[in-house]
Amino acid sequence: MDLLEKIRERARKSPKRIVLPGGEEERMIKATARILKEGIAEIILLGEKSKIKNEVQSLKVNIEKAKIIEPEKSEQLENYADTYFELRKENGISKDEALSIMKEPLFYGTMMVKKGEADGSVSGTVHTTAETIRPALQIIKTTPGVKKVSSSFLMILKDEKFGENGALIFADCAILPDPNEEELADIAIASANTAKDLMNCEPRVAMLSFSTKGSASHELVDKVRRVTDIIKRREPHLLIDGELQADAALIPEVASQKAPKSSLAGRANVLIFPGLNSANIGYKLVQRLAGAQAIGPILQGLAKPVNDLSRGCSVEDIINLVAITSLQT
Q1: 247 FRET partner, CA 20 to 30 A, in 43, 95, 161, 299?
Q2: What is the reported pTM?
Q3: What is the rounded end-to-end Cα distance, in angstroms, of the chain?
Q4: Domain count, the chain
Q5: Quick one: the chain helix, strand, coil %, rounded to 5?
Q6: Does one domain contain both 91 and 169?
Q7: In 3D, which of 90, 81, 106 has the Cα closest to residue 25?
Q8: Rounded to an integer, what distance in angstroms lies between the CA atom of residue 264 and that of residue 283?
């Protein structure tokens, strides 16, 4: 059984309520039919009921067990709007504006998670990452002690000698362009937790650089060293090392030459890049050149799970991210 099937199997054991704000979209409906048939999660679709039903008939799929909600006609609309107003009134929002905003599926779905009426949310087929994150930051907010939301990708390689039987976490590939030291430490700790949740293993975190243990001298290298020290103080039991070049982080033979005293010994399963440029380039290169599966971006640091899909995602991508979101609850 491969990792993604293991994740789905774990989700099946305790199905969570996952809300899909893009409920009218064809791929969401196809994914919903599969998710319900396989018992991966309970699904709440947001959108116009007539449009969803017409799409279901056209696709000839069964989503009878799904709950469908039209935010504009919902009995909870005013209650949700009142809550949103209380959260945002200091930002100058009026009650009428709160009511209007809460009619939008992304905001309504996020409020369902906030209120405990859904366990998590997955969107992105028809929304950008920024559109997905905005209501999450306004309504759910970050986990106490975490200042910024970050993201990671679950990368599954064909070659199982890397990472955790071919699976690795890459971060932050989608959100923070140039994280400062505390933010980079938050990314690493959150990514370690993501690895633990999804891969069911001990995280082995490599702080990446163009230098390995002093092979180069530069302020960017010094920053990675300082961040590594910050993390060791904050999470003394976390297995982490840096600064490391990617080959020293991933290949035991290279690690024995470049970093013989490294606690990771070339067996990292979580790779923390120093910034968004390198992270985004890195995951896309591995995805396209090595044929790896890239699942994400998985949002990290929120008090409750809200996740984002690429607008070019497949039905399988949706199913996988729903299962992953279920494990984050």
Answers
A1: 299
A2: 0.89
A3: 23
A4: 2
A5: 50, 20, 35
A6: no
A7: 106
A8: 21
